[in-house]
Amino acid sequence: MNRPSLLAAGTVTVAAALSLAAPAGAAPTGAGHADTAIMALEEQGNRVIVTRLSAAPLDEASIVSITHGPIVRQGVPFSTSQGDNFRSIANQTVYVTVR
User: Fold this and answer.
1) Where is the signal peptide (predicted)?
2) 5, 14, 22, 44: which could join 1 in a potential S-S bond, CB 3.0 to 4.6 Å?
3) Closest listed residue to residue 99, CA positions, set 28, 32, 22
4) Burial class (CB in 10 A: 0-12, 13-18, 19+), 75
């Protein structure tokens, strides 16, 4: 392959990788809104995992990225008049990186 073909292939690969890391919707981003975004994601029923790139408090931190992780399904026991039963609960894992 010549150099222009390698560059084009590399650009397509990077674009494909970025499209797979879709940001979570309805969460505010920007300086000083990390705590608000995390609370909004949790209120939507997401399991939020925060990665800190600095020691700044969350109310002063900026969001670097928000990406979706796996959906976690689990059975939760509950009692009914007909005996014990299980119901399935699904939570989306969302990774938030802050600085």
Assistant:
1) 1-26
2) 5
3) 32
4) exposed
Cα–Cα nearest to 94, from 72, 67, 73: 67
* Tens digits of residue pLDDT in 76-95: 888 888 877 888 889 999 99
Which amino acid appears at position 88 of this protein? S
- Percent with pLDDT over 70 in the chain: 68
The owner of tokens 């990774």 is 95
Three-state DSSP at 98 gives strand
Tokens representing 67 are 């990406």
Q: Which range of residues forms the domain containing residue 53?
A: 3-98
pTM above threshold 0.70:
no
* Long-range pairs of 88-91 with CB within 8 A, sequence gap ≥ 24: 91/45, 91/46, 91/47
- State the pLDDT at residue 33: 81
